[in-house]
Write a structure and sequence with these properties.
The structure is a single chain. The chain has three helices and five strands, in the order E-H-E-H-E-H-E-E.
Length: 130
């Protein structure tokens, strides 16, 4: 496996998924791509669209930028090559992630990870793109 991807979401599930993707990439000596899709609010009028888009985009990227050094450090510590991609697309995040995976020969997308209540096992949800 040469290319593993983890889509960014601002929640705890992402951080567990990132750890699992990092482990998989390390075990397979794979490139790890962290993919962030810029989110835009839906359902606003055209006259508000420009202002809201600019403010929303800057806030969204600012929050992501705060976490990025930590994620890069974790990848560096694990000796995994990490590439960060920020997609500014008018697609739903799910469609943008799948399109990115298809266009960049991603073999495995780690989309979520949930720890069991007893804390002993972790179930990794994965989406194999090929």
């Amino acid at each position: 496996m040469k290319h593993v991807m983890v889509p960014y979401r601002p929640d705890d599930v992402f951080f567990r998924a990132f750890q699992n993707a990092l482990n998989i990439a390390k075990q397979n000596n794979s490139l790890l791509s962290l993919v962030k899709v810029i989110s835009y609010p839906a359902g606003i009028g055209m006259d508000e669209l420009l202002v809201v888009d600019l403010v929303s985009r800057e806030y969204d990227l600012d929050e992501f930028d705060k976490m990025l050094p930590r994620l890069k450090q974790e990848a560096n510590s694990a000796q995994v090559k990490l590439e960060v991609h920020i997609l500014d697309m008018r697609l739903s995040p799910a469609n943008a992630f799948v399109k990115f995976a298809s266009n960049h020969e991603v073999e495995l997308m780690v989309v979520g990870s949930i720890a069991k209540k007893d804390g002993t096992n972790i179930l990794v949800w994965i989406f194999q793109t090929r």
